[in-house]
């Protein structure tokens, strides 16, 4: 469970930060709702990982 949460947190946070750069480089509109959702989900995974680190 710990590996899944850490993998999800890293992947979602990295994707949320790099996706606007990729989309603007391709001259496409940036899907802000999707990026904000990915950032919130990654932050939630990181929060769960830190808060419950002893039980995992």
Describe the structure.
This protein starts with a helix and ends in a 5-residue tail after the last helix. The protein has two helices and no strands. The chain is 79% helix and 0% strand. The protein is elongated. The longest helix has 24 residues. The mean pLDDT is 95. It has 56 residues and is mainly α. α1 runs antiparallel to α2. Keywords: Membrane, Transmembrane, Transmembrane helix.
Put the structure in a nutshell.
The protein has helices at residues 2-25, 32-51. It has 56 residues and is an all-alpha fold.
- N/C terminus separation: 7 Å
Mean of all residue-level pLDDT scores: 95
Secondary structural class: mainly alpha
Strand proportion, as a percent range, falls in under 5%
Low-confidence stretches: none
What gyration radius follows from the Cα positions, in whole Å?
Answer: 13 Å
Key descriptive features of the protein:
elongated, 56 residues, mainly alpha
Outline the secondary-structure elements.
Blueprint: H1 2-25, H2 32-51
Helix pairs in contact: 1-2
